[in-house]
Amino acid sequence: MSTAGFDPALGASFVATPGGLGRRAGARFIDWIVAGIVGAVLFWLLNRSGNIPDWLSILPGAGFGFLYFVGFEVLTGSTPGKKLLGLHVNGPAGAPKPSVKESALRNCYMLLNLIPWIGGALWFVAALAIAVTVGSSPTKQGWHDRLADGTQVIED
Length: 156
Description:
single chain, mainly alpha, two-stranded antiparallel ribbon, 6 helices, globular
């Protein structure tokens, strides 16, 4: 199913094809690898001095993924993984990219990993719920897209 949007550069409406679950999962996997490598380097750099407690030094690495997704979505509308697989995040009502608030809401589930002991399990449940809601939505919007006022991943 396609959804309508507006391209200010063209001055006209267009039909956007929602990004499917498989491509979205592939893009997310690529982005996790990139963000994970950078987060691991940050963790290593902070821990090499030995003066920072482990619980504090994990915050930049764990929070980096959230900042990675928000930063790329707000600045370009696509993370490197999405760009590589031909996907783009639109803001509500077909805006060319989400705002900081919309992207932060869309990706807030990633911060569940910061909760000690149960954060990983909570994150997994949230990610599974996203996959189910994307897969069952005619517009391929997950609960996180609805939480963010209707953001949508579309094919470029």
